[in-house]
Design brief:
The complex is a heterodimer of chains A (258) and B (167). Chain A is an all-alpha fold. Chain A has eight helices and no strands. The radius of gyration of chain A is 21 Å and the shape is globular. Chain A starts with a helix and ends with a helix. Chain B is an alpha+beta fold. Chain B has two domains: 31 residues; 122 residues, OB fold (Dihydrolipoamide Acetyltransferase, E2P), CATH 2.40.50. Chain B has a five-stranded mixed β-barrel with strand order 1-3-4-6-5. Classes of the chains: A mainly alpha (258), B alpha+beta (167).
Chain lengths: 258, 167
């Protein structure tokens, strides 16, 4: 607790940019006006990607229209994993530098990430039944993504489980950091082991195994999902900060009135 | 005495390293369990005991699929190959829609007498390639790829390929 006070006083000298942007008030001043724009872009990109993918992109030669589920499944999976990476970064900032904003962000990323992971699991399952012949198999990819879902759920529960908020933040940050080891396992599971889940289609080195007219809507939809994730989290952080401010004002007012 | 911040950072890094090493060793040790299926090559090397249930994965070999209909229930005989070895598989029941020659499959069952794999369930393993019908057609016409022989050629040869209009 001591160093927080110290940082407050010498923030300008030694705190650097990290402390500058970790100030909740400053965050609100930047985020509030940006929110409507973020929301508009998220909706526009997601709608564009999904309508393009479902109406105008060609069907797959083998899977037919069932392949179109990838315009939801793949972006949801990417956003869910990136969200967990962000959660891990927030947890590191929380444990090492004790940033109040990182704690709030970690608390608000959890439910959004769990939602995106759920969408990924359900859409994949609906695709698996007609294509593989099974809703669910216990291969390394599917199991590790299910574990990601449970990590999100555990984080949601743990960060809210203590009367003393700071205890919840510490415990949940440790859980999030330990769980981060699951991310490379998800990514490389299809390369390290034989899985029923197919290997990577999109690759940054060498060509992606997808025809351009299907790749573009997939990328736009992914951008939309990323933006939506980000917008939801920023909106939730703004609401959480406002809630805290209101509570402390009410408390102060209650203490003043005899 | 270091600053508490720096101490905590080193502590987190040390814990991360230990955890990473532990999980890495564990995954390496359990690697064979984490593998969802055995390839035909591994089956021939390891000789799983008769009646022991395992999963066999590979590609349905070209020209080996024979289906016989006994009282309305189809029984299919085919070979699963990984290019180096092949295992004959017999399956009674309805196969998934994607089943065809050249398709990746995972069969769940056990070895029966005579070196035949008796499958209780067959799942289709879809490849990672996505392309429209007309691209597949023109690849086939150009003699660059026949789906019956397995996965498509290198992606950069077809993922921006021009397709004749109307084909």
């Amino acid at each position: 607790m001591n160093e927080n006070v110290l940082n407050g006083t010498r923030g300008e000298k030694s705190g650097g940019w990290l402390h500058y942007f970790a100030n909740p008030g400053r965050f609100m001043r930047v985020a509030r006006p940006a929110l409507p724009w973020l929301a508009a872009f998220s909706v526009a990109l997601t709608a564009c990607g999904i309508i393009w993918g479902y109406q105008f992109a060609p069907a797959d030669w083998e899977q037919g229209d069932a392949a179109r589920i990838m315009y939801v499944h793949v972006p949801a999976a990417w956003a869910a994993m990136s969200g967990y990476a962000a959660l891990a970064v927030c947890s590191l900032l929380s444990i090492v530098w004790r940033h109040p904003l990182a704690d709030i962000a970690a608390e608000e990323i959890g439910p959004v990430g769990a939602g995106f992971t759920f969408v990924c699991l359900v859409s994949g399952s609906l695709w698996g039944r007609p294509m593989w012949g099974a809703y669910w198999v216990w291969d390394a990819r599917l199991t590790s993504v299910l574990l990601l879902f449970f990590l999100y759920l555990g984080h949601i529960a743990l960060i809210r489980a203590f009367d003393n908020k700071a205890h919840g933040y510490r415990a949940a940050a440790i859980l999030a950091l330990v769980g981060a080891i699951n991310l490379p396992i998800i990514v490389f599971s299809v390369q390290w082991w034989n899985t029923l889940h197919q290997g990577n289609t999109i690759s940054f080195s060498g060509g992606s195994k997808i025809y351009v007219t299907m790749l573009y809507p997939l990328l736009i939809s992914s951008l939309g999902f990323y933006m939506s994730f980000f917008t939801l989290v920023v909106a939730r952080i703004c609401a959480a900060i406002a809630e805290r401010k209101t509570r402390s004002l009410l408390l102060a007012a209650a203490e003043q009135t005899p | 005495m270091r600053k508490p911040k720096t101490r905590r950072l080193y502590l987190v890094l040390a814990c991360g390293l230990c955890l990473g090493a532990a999980v890495g060793l564990m995954l390496a040790a359990f690697s064979s369990t984490l593998t969802y299926f055995l390839s035909p090559r591994e089956v021939l090397v390891k000789h799983p005991a008769q009646g022991l249930t395992f999963r066999l994965g590979g590609i349905v070999q070209m020209g080996t699929v024979k289906t016989t209909d006994i009282a309305g229930v189809p029984t299919t005989l085919f070979h699963v190959t990984d290019g180096r070895a092949a295992v004959p598989v017999v399956f009674t029941g309805v196969l998934p829609d994607l089943f065809r020659e050249g398709q990746g499959v995972v069969a769940i069952g056990s070895m029966a007498p005579g070196g035949v794999f008796q499958a209780d369930e067959v799942l289709a393993k879809h490849g990672a390639a996505y392309m429209p019908k007309d691209v597949e057609q023109s690849l086939k016409e150009a003699g660059k790829w026949d789906p019956k022989y397995g996965p498509p050629p290198a992606a950069d040869t077809w993922n921006t390929m021009q397709v004749k209009a109307g084909s």
